[in-house]
Amino acid sequence: MKIAKIIFNKNFLCFILALLSLGSFYPFVHSYVLFGNKKLSITIFFISLWLIFIIQNKIDKLKLPNKKFNIIVFIQVIFILIWSVVLDSISIRSQGINLLISWIFVFLIVNSIDVYYFLKAFIRINIISLVLCLVGIIFVVLGWAELYSTHKYNSDRMIFNYLFFFIKREELMGLNIRPAGYYDEPGSFSFIIMLLLLLNRKFFKNLKWEYLMLFLTISILSHF
Fold this sequence. Notes:
The chain has nine helices and four strands; from the N terminus they run αααααααββββαα. By secondary structure, the chain is mainly alpha-helical.
């Protein structure tokens, strides 16, 4: 009964939809592994389900993210767009697009999930990912884990899936292990952990989470 209550909880269902919807966008890569070439259409499907849920439940009381947050995002997008025009850089321009996409996801989250629930769940799933990365490294080194599948990411990267939240190897670096959880690289995972440490200290002050994130992050050092 308790498990069923958790599964059918509105916040839990929306959190799962959020994870599935984020999977095709930087810095996440899990949709590449889970859905392959169909990742984009499946991502759009999950986002559509998420939107339908929000419309059905909050049609008269949609709310925008925090005003200060909106101003910060707006200033960043304008600066990035101007910078991309000056340097004539498509890659810089894409950063502005990523910020806009991030704002959209924040909008979806604040209108469907209790924000504190989302942050707690997101911290926990990243701690689980860190544990699986550490276990994955040990298993790969000892030869107990075999390569399950490979997936092309962008045009110049590969994801080597060992089933432990996508342990990766870099072909041009002597096949070194690069565990990155379900992110595009260890650096992205580290930045997310740094953000979660700050959020935990501000909102929850959970020392167990803090120590776990601090000490388990050693498992995602760039190369082993």
